[in-house]
Amino acid sequence: MARRKSGNHGGHGWFVTFADLMALLVAFFVMLAASSTQDQQKLQAVAGSMRDAFGVQHIVRYSGIIEASGLPTRPKLKNAAHIPPEEASANPTPDQHDRNRAAGARLKEDKAFALASATLRQALQDMPELTEISRHIMIEETREGLNIEIVDQDGRSMFPEGSREPYERTRRLIEKLSGPIKAAPFRLTITGHTSATKTASRPGFGPWELSAERANVVRRILEEEGVPTSQFYGVTGRADILPLFPDDPYIAANRRVTITLMREEPPLPLDFKP
């Protein structure tokens, strides 16, 4: 007895789903083509259609900026106010002009710091007789500016023990650095540091006095080499409160003099009106 074949509905049920998909794609591309040339009436029509389809939100909530370490962030929201579509404009706002000006100033400043750093390193390489002592120089760009650290090393000090006057080799090194420093368009701060010590200092002359006087001697050498007085912003002594290596405050490398090319806010434009 022959088996009865089950009913066959054609086997083309997938075609209906495929046709729906193609219809949706065609509608999507038609919408893209219609929105390719925008004008005010089209924007209002699209906004009205979206409101009719999804409803209207009466409570406006603004999303902030998630700040993550190492990622660039804006100092504030770009658009903090609700602007109706009919009042929107492609022209930048005044604060956007200010941000563009500040970004341009920072880019120019970064280039100047990079040039100053390269010039200082080249100046050290141009003196073969100071190759050994140039290892005492650390050049590092920080948030405060470009730091030029003149540090001691074990068995090789830049200043005699307890003296504010540097060795002759140290003086020659500072004189060599004065050229690039004078050419850089930045103000200077000079800070003296000492390492922690377990020996008592002589009365009336401790780490604070020693660090301050060494910083002032460095300032005087730079000034004698032509760095203008107006370029100096501050000369201070910090004793041993800011060690370069906090894990070991007693090592020689914490004894240093730091010359900082300051990172400052860009000057106000001539047409600025508060």
Automatic annotation (TrEMBL):
The chain crosses the membrane at residues 12-34. GO terms for cellular component: plasma membrane. PROSITE patterns: OMPA_2. Residues 146-265 form the OmpA-like domain. It is found in: Cell membrane. It comes from the Bacteria. It is a single-pass membrane protein. Its main location: membrane. Residues 84-103 are annotated as: Disordered. Keywords: Cell membrane, Membrane, Transmembrane, Transmembrane helix. Belongs to the MotB family. This is Motility protein B. It comes from Rhodoplanes serenus.
